[in-house]
Protein backbone atom coordinates (compact mmCIF):
# COMPACT_ATOMS: atom_id res chain seq x y z
CA UNK A 1 0.00 0.00 0.00
CA UNK A 2 1.19 3.53 -0.77
CA UNK A 3 2.26 5.59 2.24
CA UNK A 4 1.22 9.22 1.53
CA UNK A 5 3.99 10.51 3.80
CA UNK A 6 6.70 8.74 1.81
CA UNK A 7 8.86 10.98 -0.38
CA UNK A 8 8.30 9.72 -3.90
CA UNK A 9 10.50 12.30 -5.56
CA UNK A 10 12.68 11.17 -8.40
CA UNK A 11 15.20 13.77 -7.25
CA UNK A 12 17.65 13.96 -4.38
CA UNK A 13 19.42 17.11 -3.29
CA UNK A 14 22.71 17.08 -1.44
CA UNK A 15 25.09 19.74 -0.25
CA UNK A 16 27.89 20.29 -2.74
CA UNK A 17 31.59 20.23 -1.96
CA UNK A 18 34.56 21.61 -3.85
CA UNK A 19 34.67 18.21 -5.58
CA UNK A 20 31.43 19.27 -7.31
CA UNK A 21 32.76 22.62 -8.47
CA UNK A 22 33.94 21.46 -11.91
CA UNK A 23 30.52 19.90 -12.66
CA UNK A 24 28.68 23.01 -11.43
CA UNK A 25 30.82 25.45 -13.38
CA UNK A 26 30.73 23.40 -16.59
CA UNK A 27 26.94 23.00 -16.40
CA UNK A 28 26.35 26.67 -15.60
CA UNK A 29 28.73 27.85 -18.30
CA UNK A 30 27.20 25.54 -20.90
CA UNK A 31 23.63 26.52 -19.98
CA UNK A 32 24.39 30.25 -19.90
CA UNK A 33 26.78 30.49 -22.85
CA UNK A 34 24.14 31.42 -25.43
CA UNK A 35 22.68 34.16 -23.23
CA UNK A 36 26.12 35.54 -22.49
CA UNK A 37 26.98 35.67 -26.20
CA UNK A 38 23.62 37.22 -27.19
CA UNK A 39 23.94 39.89 -24.53
CA UNK A 40 27.64 40.62 -25.12
CA UNK A 41 28.79 39.31 -21.75
CA UNK A 42 31.95 37.35 -21.03
CA UNK A 43 31.99 34.25 -18.82
CA UNK A 44 34.42 34.69 -15.93
CA UNK A 45 35.38 31.50 -14.17
CA UNK A 46 37.12 33.48 -11.43
CA UNK A 47 33.86 35.26 -10.59
CA UNK A 48 31.95 31.98 -10.59
CA UNK A 49 34.50 30.55 -8.14
CA UNK A 50 34.19 33.59 -5.89
CA UNK A 51 30.38 33.29 -5.95
CA UNK A 52 30.63 29.53 -5.30
CA UNK A 53 32.67 30.18 -2.17
CA UNK A 54 30.10 32.72 -0.91
CA UNK A 55 27.02 30.58 -1.62
CA UNK A 56 25.33 27.54 -0.21
CA UNK A 57 25.70 25.06 -3.07
CA UNK A 58 23.69 21.93 -3.79
CA UNK A 59 23.79 19.18 -6.38
CA UNK A 60 20.58 17.68 -7.71
CA UNK A 61 20.79 13.97 -8.45
CA UNK A 62 18.58 11.32 -10.02
CA UNK A 63 19.59 7.75 -9.20
CA UNK A 64 22.89 9.00 -7.83
CA UNK A 65 23.83 10.85 -11.03
CA UNK A 66 24.32 14.64 -10.88
CA UNK A 67 21.73 16.37 -13.07
CA UNK A 68 21.60 19.89 -11.67
CA UNK A 69 22.86 22.57 -9.35
CA UNK A 70 21.20 25.09 -7.07
CA UNK A 71 23.11 27.87 -5.35
CA UNK A 72 21.60 30.24 -2.77
CA UNK A 73 22.60 33.06 -0.45
CA UNK A 74 20.69 34.77 2.31
CA UNK A 75 20.40 38.53 1.85
CA UNK A 76 18.54 40.65 4.38
CA UNK A 77 15.08 39.11 4.63
CA UNK A 78 15.24 36.99 1.48
CA UNK A 79 16.77 33.87 0.03
CA UNK A 80 18.53 34.80 -3.20
CA UNK A 81 18.56 31.94 -5.69
CA UNK A 82 21.86 32.42 -7.48
CA UNK A 83 21.56 29.48 -9.84
CA UNK A 84 19.09 26.83 -10.87
CA UNK A 85 20.85 24.77 -13.52
CA UNK A 86 19.58 21.50 -14.95
CA UNK A 87 21.25 19.17 -17.46
CA UNK A 88 19.50 19.47 -20.83
CA UNK A 89 18.01 15.96 -20.89
CA UNK A 90 16.34 16.54 -17.51
CA UNK A 91 14.60 19.84 -18.28
CA UNK A 92 10.80 19.97 -18.39
CA UNK A 93 10.65 16.91 -16.12
CA UNK A 94 10.07 18.70 -12.80
CA UNK A 95 13.68 19.26 -11.73
CA UNK A 96 13.45 23.07 -11.75
CA UNK A 97 10.12 23.00 -9.92
CA UNK A 98 11.62 20.63 -7.34
CA UNK A 99 14.57 22.99 -6.78
CA UNK A 100 12.40 26.10 -6.50
CA UNK A 101 9.93 24.44 -4.14
CA UNK A 102 12.87 23.35 -1.99
CA UNK A 103 14.20 26.92 -1.89
CA UNK A 104 10.75 28.22 -0.92
CA UNK A 105 10.54 25.71 1.97
CA UNK A 106 14.02 26.68 3.15
CA UNK A 107 13.15 30.39 3.08
CA UNK A 108 10.01 29.77 5.16
CA UNK A 109 11.92 27.55 7.61
CA UNK A 110 14.54 30.31 8.03
CA UNK A 111 11.83 32.89 8.72
CA UNK A 112 12.58 34.84 5.54
CA UNK A 113 9.92 36.83 3.72
CA UNK A 114 10.76 36.12 0.08
CA UNK A 115 12.87 34.43 -2.55
CA UNK A 116 14.63 36.43 -5.24
CA UNK A 117 16.34 35.49 -8.48
CA UNK A 118 17.64 37.00 -11.68
CA UNK A 119 16.95 35.67 -15.14
CA UNK A 120 17.87 36.66 -18.67
CA UNK A 121 14.79 38.16 -20.31
CA UNK A 122 15.03 35.67 -23.20
CA UNK A 123 15.45 32.59 -20.98
CA UNK A 124 12.47 30.20 -21.28
CA UNK A 125 12.86 29.41 -17.55
CA UNK A 126 11.31 32.82 -16.86
CA UNK A 127 7.93 31.26 -17.70
CA UNK A 128 8.44 28.71 -14.92
CA UNK A 129 9.29 31.48 -12.46
CA UNK A 130 6.13 33.40 -13.36
CA UNK A 131 4.03 30.22 -12.98
CA UNK A 132 5.56 29.76 -9.54
CA UNK A 133 4.57 33.25 -8.43
CA UNK A 134 7.66 35.31 -9.22
CA UNK A 135 7.07 38.87 -10.35
CA UNK A 136 9.44 41.59 -11.57
CA UNK A 137 10.97 43.34 -8.56
CA UNK A 138 11.93 46.98 -8.18
CA UNK A 139 14.96 48.57 -9.70
CA UNK A 140 18.24 46.93 -8.84
CA UNK A 141 21.72 46.73 -10.30
CA UNK A 142 20.65 43.59 -12.18
CA UNK A 143 18.15 45.59 -14.23
CA UNK A 144 20.51 46.04 -17.16
CA UNK A 145 17.94 45.39 -19.86
CA UNK A 146 19.03 41.80 -20.51
CA UNK A 147 18.44 40.58 -16.95
CA UNK A 148 15.20 40.69 -15.00
CA UNK A 149 15.19 40.70 -11.20
CA UNK A 150 12.20 38.75 -9.81
CA UNK A 151 10.85 37.97 -6.35
CA UNK A 152 8.02 36.12 -4.65
CA UNK A 153 6.71 35.97 -1.10
CA UNK A 154 7.12 32.68 0.74
From TrEMBL:
InterPro entries associated with the record: Acyl_CoA_acyltransferase, Bact_Acetyltransf, GNAT_dom
Q: Which residues cross the membrane?
A: none
N-acetyltransferase domain boundaries = 11-154
Provide this UniProt record's keywords sorted from A to Z: Acyltransferase, Transferase
- Any Pfam family hit: Acetyltransf_1
Note the SUPFAM superfamilies from the entry: Acyl-CoA N-acyltransferases (Nat)
CDD domains (UniProt xref) = NAT_SF
Q: What is this protein called?
A: GNAT family acetyltransferase
Return the PROSITE patterns for the record: GNAT (PS51186)
- Mention one GO molecular function: acyltransferase activity, transferring groups other than amino-acyl groups
